[in-house]
Design brief:
By secondary structure, the chain is an alpha+beta fold. It folds into two domains: about 280 residues, Butyryl-CoA Dehydrogenase, subunit A, domain 2; about 180 residues, Butyryl-CoA Dehydrogenase, subunit A, domain 3, CATH 1.20.140. The protein contains 16 helices and 14 strands. The strands form four sheets. It has a six-stranded mixed beta sheet with strand order 2-1-10-11-7-6, with no helix packed on it. It has a four-stranded mixed beta sheet with strand order 5-8-9-12. Strands 3-4 form a two-stranded antiparallel sheet. The longest helix is centred in the middle third of the chain and has 31 residues.
C-alpha cells in the first residue's frame, strides 16, 4: 500500500468498530462527523494528503526498502546526517501545516516505533522478550502507513511510593492477569492516550522505573484500536465551535485525550514485545534510541510553534501600534531568544550526531535534553506575553455572527486597529485568545509544561547525564589539587 492519502485514512478510521465513549455515551456514528472529532480528523487527513501532493511528495516520502513503493518519511531509519536532515524537513512540513499545535501528529509515534525497531536487539536473549516483533510491527506500520496512539501513564489513584493495590481486587493500573497459548490477557487502565481512538493501533509500554511494585505491569505491545475489550473514555471537548473565525485553532487542532480501559483484552503473542520484565522496560526507554529520535521530532514541532507565537506577537503589536514601547520590545525579545536557543539545540543535536552500535545515526542527546528543560519553562511565559501584549483587547471579543448583524457599524467604528479593520483585528485577537486563554489554549500550555514529564526529574536526568568531569578536572589542575578519581 505505501504512503496513504487523507481519504484512505478516514475510510480506514470509519471502518473500525472502536469503542469510544464521549460525554457518557458510546459514539455510534462517524467520527469524521462528530463535533468533538471532526476538526482533528480533517486535519490529520490533510496531513496525509501532503504525502501525495505533487509539490511535496518527494519531501514527504522515501522508497520502501521492501517494495520500493513510496512510504512515509517519518518511518525512515537514519543512517547518515543527511537522513536526519531529510526527516527534519518532512517533520517541519507537517508541523507548519498545523502551526505546531498537534503534539501527536502521526510522525511522532511513527518515530517512536522506528526508534524501538532500531534498538530492538538490546532485548535479545532476555527473559520474556521478543525483539524481532518490533521489526515486524514496524515494517507492517511502514508499509501500510499505520497511525498510532500510545499510553504508558498509570492512573493517579495514589502516587505515594508505598502504595500497593489490594490483593484480590480488580487491578486499577493495567497489568497482565493471565497468559495462555494465544497471548497475554490485560486488565486495568492507562491514562492520557492523546488522539485515542483516532488511530489504527495503540502502542502500549511501561514507563521506566527502578521498582515496579505491582506484578505484571512491565510489558510492551501494539494492538489495533478496535480490539475486543478495549475502550477509550474521552475527556470533555475543547472545541469551541465550528467557526474558524471564532475558534481558529480549536476548530481544527483540538486533540482529544482519553483513558484507555483494558477489559480482559487478549494481546496475541506476535504483538507482544516483552512482558514480566522490569529490566527490559527500563532498557527499552533509557538505553534505546527512543529519546534521541522522539525528542528530535518534538523539538522540530516546538520550534515551529514558537515561530507561530513570535509571528502572532508581532502582528498584535502592529495591530494596536505599541512597537515603540521598550517593555514590549523586551517581552518579544524573550520570545526571540527562546526560539533561537531551541533552534541552536536542534542544530547542535544534528551536527554532533553519531552512528550507534546498530549503524543508525542518533542525534546527540545532550542538546536535546537541554531543550527539554528549556521549553516547559518558556512556553507558559510566552503565552503570558501574548496575553500582556493583547491586554484588555483579549477580553472584549465579538463573534463572527456579530459582524453579520445590525451592530456591525458599531463594531467597525470602535474595534478597528491601527492598520486593521475591526473584523480583521478581531480575527487576530481571537487567535491570540484561542492560543492562550480558551480551554484549548489552557490545555496547550499544560500539555507543553509536562510534555516530557516532571520538570524536576528532567533536570535531574540532565544533571546526572551531563559530562561534567572534564570541567572539574580543569579546576583541579588550576588549583594544583590531586585527582582523587
Amino acid at each position: 500500500m505505501g504512503a496513504i492519502n487523507g481519504k484512505t485514512y478516514i475510510n480506514r478510521l470509519e471502518s473500525k468498530k472502536t469503542e469510544i465513549w464521549f460525554d457518557g455515551k458510546r459514539i455510534a456514528g462517524k467520527l469524521s462527523e462528530h463535533p468533538a472529532f471532526k476538526g482533528v480528523v480533517e486535519t490529520k487527513a490533510s496531513l496525509y494528503d501532503l504525502q501525495s501532493h505533487p509539490e511535496h511528495s518527494k519531501e514527504m516520502t522515501y522508497s520502501s526498502p521492501s517494495t520500493n513503493e513510496p512510504v512515509g518519511l517519518s518511518f525512515l531509519q537514519p543512517e547518515t546526517k543527511d537522513d536526519l536532515y531529510k526527516r527534519r524537513k518532512m517533520m517541519e512540513r507537517w508541523a507548519r501545516h498545523t502551526c505546531g499545535m498537534m503534539g501527536r501528529s502521526p510522525d511522532y509515534l511513527s518515530t517512536v516505533l522506528m526508534s524501538f525497531a532500531c534498538s530492538s536487539n538490546i532485548l535479545e536473549e532476555r527473559e520474556n522478550c521478543f525483539p524481532a516483533h518490533f521489526q515486524t510491527v514496524y515494517e507492517r506500520a511502514r508499509e501500510n502507513d499505520l497511525s498510532f496512539t500510545h499510553t504508558f501513564i498509570t492512573p493517579q489513584v495514589n502516587r505515594s511510593q508505598s502504595y500497593f493495590e489490594e490483593d484480590g481486587e480488580d487491578p486499577v493500573s493495567a497489568r497482565v492477569i493471565e497468559k495462555n497459548q494465544d497471548g497475554l490477557i490485560i486488565k486495568g487502565a492507562r491514562l492520557l492516550a492523546t488522539q485515542g481512538g483516532l488511530s489504527d493501533e495503540v502502542l502500549v509500554f511501561s514507563a521506566p522505573s527502578k521498582l515496579l511494585f505491582e506484578s505484571g505491569e512491565a510489558f510492551a505491545f501494539s494492538i489495533p484500536s478496535d480490539t475486543k475489550g478495549l475502550k477509550f473514555i474521552c475527556r470533555d471537548s475543547y472545541v469551541g465551535g465550528n467557526s474558524i473565525f471564532d475558534h481558529p485553532l480549536s476548530s481544527r487542532y483540538e486533540e482529544m485525550d482519553s483513558i484507555i480501559v483494558f477489559d480482559d483484552v487478549l494481546v496475541p503473542w506476535d504483538s507482544v514485545f516483552f512482558y514480566d520484565n522490569p529490566d527490559a522496560s527500563n532498557k527499552l526507554i533509557l538505553d534505546s534510541s527512543f529519546h534521541h529520535f522522539a525528542t528530535h521530532q518534538v523539538l522540530v514541532r516546538q520550534i515551529v510553534k514558537l515561530e507561530f507565537v513570535l509571528g502572532l506577537a508581532e502582528l498584535l503589536i502592529e495591530t494596536i501600534g505599541v512597537r515603540e514601547y521598550l517593555h514590549i520590545q523586551e517581552k518579544v525579545s524573550e520570545i526571540i531568544i527562546g526560539l533561537e536557543t531551541m533552534k541552536a539545540m536542534l542544530e547542535k543535536s544534528e551536527n554532533d550526531a553519531k552512528q550507534d552500535e546498530h549503524g543508525f545515526m542518533r542525534p546527540s542527546i545532550i542538546p536535546l535534553r537541554v531543550a527539554t528543560n528549556i521549553f516547559p519553562k518558556i512556553y507558559p511565559r510566552f503565552a503570558e506575553i501574548l496575553q500582556l501584549i493583547g491586554a484588555s483587547g483579549m477580553v472584549t471579543l465579538p463573534t463572527e455572527n456579530a459582524f453579520h448583524s445590525p451592530i456591525k457599524p458599531d463594531l467597525d467604528k470602535y474595534l478597528k486597529g491601527t492598520n486593521q479593520t475591526a473584523e480583521d483585528k478581531t480575527r487576530i485577537f481571537r487567535l491570540a485568545w484561542d492560543l492562550t486563554m480558551s480551554p484549548f489554549g489552557s490545555r496547550q500550555t499544560q500539555y507543553e509544561r509536562y510534555f516530557f514529564g516532571d520538570p524536576v526529574r528532567l533536570a535531574g536526568i540532565l544533571y546526572n547525564s551531563y559530562p561534567k568531569q572534564e570541567y572539574v578536572s580543569n579546576i583541579r589542575e588550576f588549583l594544583g589539587l590531586k585527582d582523587r578519581g
